[in-house]
Amino acid sequence: MGIQHFTRKSSTAVLTGTGIITAIAGLTTLAMVMIGLPPAAAPARQAPADPKFSVADWKQSPATMTLTDVLNNPPAGWAKQGELQQLVTAPLPYSCPQPGLAPSVSLARTFTSGSSRLQVITLAYTAGIGAEAMSRQASNAYVCAGSETGLTLGGVNGPGTDAKLATTSRGGVRASVLSFRRGDVITYVTGSPADPLQTLAKAFDDGLTRRLSPVCVDQESTTADATRSPWSSAGYSQYSQEATVAIAEVPLPSTEPTNALSTPATSPAPDPTPSPAATLERVPLPAPDLVDRTVTPMNRPSFPVAPDMPAPVAEPTPPTAPAAKAILSATEQVPTNDAQGPGCGWAFTGMKPLEFDEADATKTRTALLAGTKAKLEADAKTWQDSVLTYWTGYAAYKKQAAAYNAYADQVAQVNKAWTVIGNSWASYNAAVQDRDRKAAVRADFITRQDAARKAYDTKTAQCAVIPTPSPSPSPSPAPSPSPSASPSSSPSAEPSATASASPSPTPTPSASPQPGCPADRPAILDQSAPEVPAEPVRPADPAKG
């Protein structure tokens, strides 16, 4: 398929359908885009002298052919609308130019699927730059949308990598864009918020993934991979791969005795002097902790105790053990020819591989790996020395642990003896307190009993005093009538007799009892005072036997 012309007809269709298509001015820029080179991007390193790298190759790149194929052959049930559009830009809110991140290939097409009308825009970037471009577009989305455009943006579960769904609202018009990435290809599926964009995008992605498989090196590339490209905004880093350096097995250090002979052969041979290492015990790495238990001596109480607490012995700390084995290998990142390139690779957009000086790289690798090996060997010698140091420290720790264990046994015995004595004193103090309490109860009882007896005796004495009653008067006999000395002057008058009145008998008064008599005897007078136990025996002084 030849180079497609950007006609007035296609431009009008794109601008009318989405409002996001722009023409790129300049035939030079157009040529660079169509051959897969990033326009207006200055590489960080000088291009190789190979003339083929700088001469335009007008054959279509795999990126152009792949995206053209997938847009011309949509998923089943999709109907193409209009022509294939070229030199398109990303839709709002990703439409703002990204300095140094222009796509090498940009194609779009409009489709219908059922009741949905959608446009699919595909942008292919140079090797590794697709991840950077999508990351920067997402970061600038709200700024790019502008203050007059409402925007909601969030991640979705696929398809592809870095999938996001953006919904814009401006002037009462709402639109949605689902974007995702495969390697260096960014796809935008635009439509109405009511359209099932994620389902439509997954259907399109199936065909895209299948077509990218033979031509795209890594469809899951990351922004970190972009630094393998001279056009990375993060700066260029030489591609490297891991190389492993290994040394031979390193044994534990020897503890065999050695003789130190420093005198001439003619002199008598001195007694062999064993190496200090010869006396070391070859314990495991790490060796076990030898402290049986940690003890805390009791504080000396106020009462007499025995035996005395032993002098303090610090609990020893075992030495830190080195690794059980020396490190025998290490990996280094060595410069490597980046023949395929990051992301979808150099060839995907028609780029040539970067210049690589194999001889210089070999020299660098050799020096780096030799240094790594020397360090491994030096570390192995240091490890052997650290093992000897550990064994020496462990021998001292072993003696310290034995002393501490003996001290701990003594402390445990003294703590036990002091606990028994303390229990005796606790029982004695409890008995004293109980006796004091009962004595107080008895004293209170006697006080109350004495008060009750005194009150009772007083009342009884009062009730014993009975008042004497007054004598009763005896009745007088009635007087006899005596005749009048002179007769009545009236013949009709009857003789009368004068009678004296008889007094009424006076009742005999009785003695009235006083209130509260007889006195009630208080019950406490018939009760016995509470008993008080004998004074408890003070614990004996253990120091006196």
TrEMBL record:
Transmembrane segments: 12-37
Keyword Transmembrane helix: yes
Source organism superkingdom: Bacteria
Disordered: annotated span: 254-281, 464-545
Biased composition (Low complexity): 257-266, 485-503, 529-545
Sequence ranges of Pro residues compositional bias: 468-484, 504-516
Alphabetical UniProt keywords: Membrane, Transmembrane, Transmembrane helix
Protein name: Uncharacterized protein
Provenance organism: Arthrobacter terrae
